[in-house]
Amino acid sequence: MSSTVSKVCKISSIIVGILCFIGGIVIGNVLGGRDFDFVSMITAWICSFLFCLFLFAIGELIDLLVAANNNLIVLAEQQEELASRSSAPAASTSPSASPAPASGDWVCKKCGMHNKADNRFCRDCGTYK
Ligand SMILES: [Zn+2]
Fold this sequence. Notes:
Blueprint lengths: L3 H29 L5 H60 L8 E2 L6 E2 L14
Antiparallel strand pairs: 1-2
Helix pairs in contact: 1-2
Bound molecules: zinc ion.
């Protein structure tokens, strides 16, 4: 997934590159007068090439940052999931260890969650009673 900003950076770097390629030839023509000024043209090309590279690098950097940010979000979600998984059995062992659940209460066969009698579905995993 790449962000719009990075796309804009990359596309504009290509556009700037094309424009500067033409611009370099124009500069060479204008500065050179009758004789074509190759040095100015090549200097313009090198400058524009570096500028394009810079723009493109910013685009790449944004992509990397976005990817890293997404990875962090995924990691955080995984950690939350792990935390909820590890807490679920701990929460379920205490009610099942305690003397028989109150009238009609039931324990989920899938996750071991203690559910109230009037709950038809497990309030933790949604499994039918
Ligand atoms: Zn359950």
